[in-house]
Amino acid sequence: MSEAVPVVPNKFPILIVDDERLQRSVLEANLKAIGYEVVSAANGREALEIFRKGHFPIVMTDWVMPEMSGVELCREIRQDDSGRYTYIIILTALDSKNDIVAGLEAGADEYVVKPAHQAELTSRLRTARRIIELEKAQRKYIETINNLSHSDALTGVFCRRYMDERVQQEIKRAYRYERPLSVILVRINQFDEVVSSHGNYAGDVIIKGCAESLLEAVRKDVDWVSRYGVDSFAVVMPETDSAGAMIVAKRLRIRITSLQIPIDVNELKVTASFGVAGFTASQQKLGFTADILLGTADKNLSLAVEEGGNTIKGVQLG
Predict the structure, then answer these.
(1) What is the mean pLDDT of the chain?
(2) Domains in the chain, please, with CATH?
(3) Strands ordered across the beta sheet of 13-17
C-alpha cells in the first residue's frame, strides 16, 4: 500500500503555465491532490494577464511555449512592483545546465525536470512556502521599522523628523498644482508648570490627550498631525489657505479647552496657543520654503503665547 500524500493547508492559488494540455492537466491534478488551489494558463502571454489581475505567490511555468516563453514570463513577473514576492519554478524537459542557469538568471527560483513526481513537487513547494513566509515576515518587519521611524513613540502622530521631510514634499505638491497649503502650530500652555507640580506622567497624559483631540478634529487622509516639540504639535493642511486654517484653529482651541485630563483624583484643564501660516502656491510667486512657512507659523505662535495663551495668531503669505 502506498503512503498517503499529506494535504498541505494553503491560502493562495498556484498559477501553472504549460502549452501542453495533458501535462497541464496532470500537474493540476497532482497539485490539487496535495491541497493546492490551481489556476492554469496555456501560454506565457495568457499567464501574464492572469498574474496581473490576481495574487499568485507561486508560479510554475513551462520553459518552451508559443507567444511568450517561460524565461520571458519570468522577466515580466520580476518587473512587478506590487511589493509582494513571487516564487517561480521553471518546468522543463531540458537537462542542460546552461539552460537551467539561463532560467535562474531570468528570475526563476527553482526548476523541476518534467515529468514532475508528486513527492518532488511536495518538497519543492514546501521550500517555496518557507521562502514566501520568510519574505513576508521580513516585509512586515521593515514596515514596522519604517512606521516606528515615522511616528512619535508617545502619541502615535508623526515625529518631527518625518514632518520636516514631508512638509518639503507638500510644498512641492502645492506648487505643482498651484494650490494652498497651511500649517497650524499648537503649544500647550503652562506645560512645564504642570509637569513640575504633577510629574512627568501627568505631562504624558496631557500630550496624548491633546494629540488624540487634534487627530479627531482634522480631515482624515488629507490633513496630518506631527509632534513639533516637547509641548507642541504641527497640523499640516493641504488644500487650505490661512483663512480656512484660522477657522480650524478656532475649532481646535475649543476642543482642547474642553479636555478634562484625569490626574490622580483631580481633573486638569488644558489650554493652548496657536500660530497659523499659509500660502497659495503660484508659478508667479516662487520661493516659499518649509523654513519660511514653519518659521512664520512659529513667530505667530510666540505672539500668541506672549498675549497670555489660549490665543490664535495667523497670516497669509503671498
Answers:
(1) 86
(2) 13-148 (3.40.50.2300), 160-317 (3.30.70.270)
(3) 37-41, 13-17, 58-62, 87-92, 110-113
Would you say residue 7 has pLDDT above 60?
no
- Model confidence at 153: pLDDT above 50: yes
The Cα–Cα gap between 14 and 284 comes to: 56
Alpha carbon distances (Å) from 124 to 33, 60, 101, 127, 128? 15, 11, 18, 5, 6
Indicate the pLDDT class of residue 299, thresholds 50, 70 and 90.
very high
Strands 180-188 and 110-113: unpaired
Query: Which residue's entry shows cell 490626574?
Result: 263
Output the nine-digit C-alpha cell for 225.
498631525
Confidence (pLDDT) at 13: 85
Count the alpha carbons within 13 Å of 303 in the hemisphere toward its beta carbon: 13
What does DSSP say about strands 180-188 and 232-238: parallel, antiparallel, or unpaired? antiparallel
Alpha-carbon distance of 238 to 184, in angstroms, equals 11
Q: Work out whether the CA dihedral 160, 162, 163, 168 comes out positive or negative.
A: positive
Rounded to whole angstroms, the Cα distance separating 208 from 210 reads 5
Q: What is the rounded distance in angstroms from the CA atom of residue 65 to the CA atom of residue 27? A: 16
pTM over 0.70: no
Instruction: Classify the phi-psi angles of 81: left when phi > 0, otherwise alpha if psi is within -120 to 50, otherwise beta.
Output: alpha
Please choose, from the candidates 78, 57, 70, the residue with its C-alpha nearest in 3D space to the C-alpha of residue 15: 57
Other Cβ atoms within 10 Å of 38 Cβ, number: 16
Q: How many Å apart are CA 61 and CA 70, to the nearest integer?
A: 6
Q: In which band, very low, low, confident or very high, does the pLDDT at 272 lie, cut at 50, 70 and 90?
A: very high
How far apart (Å, rounded) are the C-alpha atoms in residues 17 and 47?
Answer: 6
230 Cβ neighbours under 8 A, 6+ residues apart:
191
